[in-house]
Amino acid sequence: MSTFFHDIAPIAYEGPESTNPMAFRHYNPDEMLMGKRMEDHLRFAVAYWHSFAWEGNDPFGGQTFERPWHPQDRMDTARLKADAAFEMFDILGQPYFCWHDADVRPEGDSFAESLKNFEEIVSYFEEKMSTRKIKLLWGTANMFSHRRWMSGASTNPDPDVFAYSAATVKTCMDATLRLGGENYVLWGGREGYETLLNTDLGRELDHMGRFLNMVVDYKHKIGFKGAILVEPKPQEPSKHQYDYDAATCIGFLRKYGLENEVKLNLEQGHAILAGHSFEHEIATATAEGMLGSIDMNRNDYQSGWDTDQFPNNTPEVALCYYHILKSGGFTTGGTNFDAKLRRQSLDAEDLIAAHVGGMDICARGLKAAAAMMEDGGLETALNTRYAGWDTPEAKTMLASDLDTIFTDVHNGKISPAPKSGRQEILENYVNRFV
Ligand code: XUL
Ligand code: CO
Fold it and tell me: Is the pTM of this model over 0.85?
């Protein structure tokens, strides 16, 4: 049995005055907000890949972490890794976790051997989950790390890779169903291109649409009741990713008839890479009823790449949860920490502290968001700003035509009077809560 975190006790809520770095100061699972437990609002998940599979490498250097489960190419170390993961889940007490197939099992010499390894670990998870409350938020397939995926998965110019991708996703959906997962995620790792000189963009998009339809058909075939989610990201690893942002994904889903079957898993860092704020992405998805889940992290604002840091900015997080609460909150989705330590943060304690801090920041943001919802100040300001549209005249105008509108404007019946957007007043309002 792993004792990777041997001297770290389960993290308890001690309240905002606590100075204990290994305690929650805001995350209090049973605290009621807007009639619902905090744990049920946030639905935290730990990401297996960043916390247990990533070894600390960056483009300039290799592994910095030395864990007892390294190297990760054997089944005994895969089990040790699972032991450490569940040990951390027990310490944090978060309700969910997430994985890619490649995070949890060693790659075999053949598809069949990789699958055998995977199924053995899924059984090991099943055993561990049977004595705990921890659940699977989502499973997904890593179709971007191995060299076979270098030109994409479902968008690969080689039909054999499309087939390998389809078979891989089938196995990951089966495992997600087996573990009672509440969602299945597809992030288009290398579904994009480097240069149009060698890329038939239209054909690749059609293949991706067909692939996603196969995924949805299979979901219904096996009776998976969870949600299928796609995760937008504008670049990295491909220079041009097809799932650029929420709006691009929504357009794609509509084109391929999937708008009622697939929702979005939105990630803070990906929003930043796309030149958006996280709340923009969330509001875009909720406006279409397509918000599924979120990957919570933070990108460095200077670096310009996907730094996947743990969240540490309460005002940003508060606005994200404000839009989530406004849309009615999560259903199958939750808050997955798609976040990794800095590569100098070597210790087991760093891994726990990172999650404790992230969970606390999200709890603080949620409390601020719930307070703003209950106060209703932003909603009142919004209603006031758009009040003109509630008048019978505006409704009639909207249902009329250019000629009629022209007449009313031309004869002076309609004459716009500019009004303040009150941005600073609203920013000051938000600052009262965060
Ligand atoms: C990559 C990313 C992935 C997905 C799952 O940037 O966010 O970890 O969340 O494949
Ligand atoms: Co992600």
Answer: yes
